[in-house]
Write a structure and sequence with these properties.
TIM Barrel, 30% helix, single chain, 10-stranded mixed β-sheet, two-stranded antiparallel sheet, PLC-like phosphodiesterase, PI-PLC_domain, PLC-like_Pdiesterase_TIM-brl
């Protein structure tokens, strides 16, 4: 190219450079290293039954979703039920644990996302009473979450089809939502059918955690995966067998290492499945003083920075016994029945 031709072409080339899309996200979910990583190649800590708070009869967390997210939780799991035509967050049934309406809950999530533009959050909904997905879509629209929700472009995605966190942030799609039943891509494309894109390990575990595929509709070798790492106690009330959280063992269950720890199950699942879990659902995440987040950082290969998280309320239940924790819950249940 002659010099005069180059001078003529220079403004055109400069214009192309300006027009090319430039990556904006430099820190993703707290780490620059995660921006170039696919969503499917990252481990996130999740809050099991994130809405189930004291002083309920069946609580699984001590702090609400705002505190959970502030402390580092990046998956929120919730069980929905039909309460007089309203989508309500309830544990098993609303008389036992009523966490309020889905609309109120999602409104709080939208507020947190607006205040934290560099974060991507995953929502896992259990559609216990088989609402049509359009009802969920209406709630998302009412609080403005539809505008920040990730649309996969197809009904399901394999591991290699997920975008990077940086791409998702650049596109303004910072909420990924899965639902276990009644998802319909043609109706509400940003609510993804869980078991077409993800598999889970067993839940309501009372003894030993494993890494076996418990639920899926697809090929687990191409899917995201969730390990349910919350230990329960079986007990009988009025002749019915129920499971309640084993609060006595929470520090060990949420631990970095040791028998029954989160770190141990994660490593066992890497050995069994050839890859780290994408989501680790836990109860009462603050037990262990941040240990659940330290496990995730190690799996993601990034440094763990100890930050302040909410304290364990009251006395350390972990020093008690499983039987003592069970008796405390049974007492609450009996008193609650009398008060109904």
């Amino acid at each position: 190219m002659r010099l005069d031709q180059f001078k003529f072409a220079l403004p055109f080339l400069f214009g192309l450079a300006l027009a090319a899309p430039q990556p904006r996200a430099t820190t993703c979910n707290g780490s620059p290293a995660l921006c170039s990583r696919q969503y499917s190649n990252i481990t996130f800590v999740g809050a099991h039954d994130s809405y189930a708070l004291p002083p309920s009869l069946a609580d699984n967390q001590d702090y609400d979703l705002t505190q959970q997210l502030t402390d580092g939780i990046r998956m929120l799991q919730g069980q929905t039920h039909n309460k007089n035509g309203t989508i309500e967050l309830c544990h098993s049934f609303c008389a036992l644990e009523d966490g309020g309406s889905l609309a109120t809950y999602l409104g709080k999530l939208k507020t947190w996302l607006d205040q934290n533009p560099g974060e991507i959050v995953t929502l896992l909904l259990v559609n216990s009473d088989d609402f049509d997905v359009s009802a969920f879509g209406q709630v998302f629209q009412s609080v403005g979450l539809d505008s920040v929700s990730f649309n996969p472009g197809t009904a399901s995605l394999t591991l290699d089809q997920w975008p990077t966190l940086g791409q998702m942030l650049d596109n303004g799609t910072r909420l990924v939502t899965f639902m276990d039943t009644k998802a319909d891509f043609t109706s509400v494309p940003y609510i993804i059918d869980e078991f077409s894109s993800m598999w889970e390990t067993a839940f309501d575990v009372t003894t030993t955690f494993d890494c076996a595929v418990n639920r899926t509709h697809g090929d687990p070798t191409t899917q995201l995966n969730t390990i349910n790492h919350f230990l329960d106690i079986g007990t009988t009330i009025a002749g019915d067998l129920i499971t309640i959280p084993n609060k006595a063992g929470l520090t060990e269950t949420n631990g970095i290492s040791g028998p029954g720890s989160l770190g141990e199950q994660a490593q066992e699942c890497i050995t069994a499945n050839g890859r780290a879990p994408n989501f680790m659902l836990v109860d009462f995440y603050e037990y262990g003083g941040g240990s659940v987040f330290q496990v995730a950082a190690a799996l993601n290969g990034i440094p763990y920075t100890q930050g302040p998280i909410a304290p364990v309320p009251g006395a350390a239940v972990g020093k008690g016994t499983a039987a003592g924790a069970a008796m405390a819950v049974i007492t609450s249940l009996v008193l609650g029945m009398w008060m109904l």
